[in-house]
Amino acid sequence: MPASRRFPWLLIGAFIALYLVWGSTYLAIRIGVESWPPLLMAGVRFVIAGSLLYGFLRWRGVPAPTWAQWRAAGAIGFLLLSCGNGGVTLAEHAGVASGVAALAVATVPLFTLLFGLLFGHRNSRLEWAGIFLGLAGIGLLNLGSNLQASPMGAVLILFAAAAWAFGSVWSKNLPLPQGAMASAAEMLVGGAALLIGSALSGERLTQMPTAAGWGALAYLIFFGSIVAFSSYMYLLKHVRPAAATSYAYVNPVVAVLLGIVFAGEQIGAEECLAMGVIVGAVVLIGLPQWRRAPRQLA
Predict the structure, then answer these.
(1) What is the pLDDT of residues 261-273, one digit of tens each?
(2) Whose CA is closest to 137, among 160, 159, 110?
(3) Backbone phi, psi, residue 5, to 5°
(4) Cβ of 34: how many Cβ atoms within 10 Å?
(5) CA 170: distance to chain centroid?
(6) Which of 9, 187, 213, 233 is deepest in the core (most CB within 10 A)?
(7) Are 104 and 157 in contact (CB under 8 A)?
């Protein structure tokens, strides 16, 4: 089948992985940090996922990254994984509910647009409309929620969102390895940095994790890291950053729904209205990219 026929399906699949899988990782992280020290869990997650993906790619004959590519991947891995995911994991360990974490991370597209201006990017009116509509949806979702976050947790979440957004924009200007090798190298470096942070902060595993803790770690390794993160890096190479980070508007919806199903949380009229607004925002942000996709492939 011609590449021009395959590409749209890969694009759609990557978006689905980000919207659904990453939305569920907030609950998985909350379950995991009940058994694991936060930085240790995040570090083990990415080192194992990166090692598996790297080993598989090398077995398939993919060349190892050059030194310049390792440096670029290390910088992006540190921003996205050590600072971004590490900040979220620390915040949830500090008591921030998974739904609140997902809501706060919804600021990623706004940070992406702001940092994009520093790199000379210009955004369409539809993208700007989607950003502001999405923020309005997040506000509505917050109005219907009684979840409370600690001040330190809020700072960690916003820092994580900003670091993730900056790394996402910067990555398009760096000589990263091709394809999934970029994800593997970033996870190896980002995971190693998290393990160093865990050791320096004095984290200790005082008892063996529960079965739920092991299950959460396995889910985060295979689905949250290998599948979803590789999909994200694929999107960063093929769509505008604002479209790639539009998952941040859908993840809160997924997190809230999982809370209803597995944690018995209630949802009111405000949350239902917010979900409709958020989905509309995703469509607005994606329209400019989806319209251009056929012309890019010609």
Answers:
(1) 776 656 667 667 7
(2) 110
(3) -85, -35
(4) 14
(5) 16
(6) 187
(7) yes
Nearest-CA neighbor of 246 among 88, 130, 122, 117? 130
Concatenate the DSSP letters of all residues of 124-184 into one string. -HHHHHHHHHHHHHHHHHHHT------HHHHHHHHHHHHHHHHHHHHHTTS-PPSTHHHHH
| Dist CA 259 CA 220 (whole Å) | 18
Question: In whole numbers, what is the pLDDT of the chain averaged over residues?
Answer: 81
Tokens of 132: 């502001």
Q: Let me know how long the chain is.
A: 298
Give the pLDDT band (50/70/90) at residue 144.
Answer: low
Cα-based torsion angle of the residue sequence 188, 190, 196, 197 in order, rounded to the nearest 10 degrees: -160
Using alpha carbons only, give the angle 279, 281, 283 rounded to the nearest 5 degrees. 75
- For the chain, give the percent of residues with pLDDT over 70: 84
In the three-class reduction of DSSP (H, G, I as helix; E, B as strand; rest coil), residue 95 is classed as coil
Predicted TM-score (pTM) of this structure: 0.81
> Token pair of 171, please?
């990555």
Nearest Cα to Cα of residue 274 among 144, 143, 140: 140
Residue range 34-68, pLDDT digits in tens = 999 999 999 999 999 999 999 999 999 999 999 99
- Nearest 5°: the CA angle 268, 273, 275 is 100
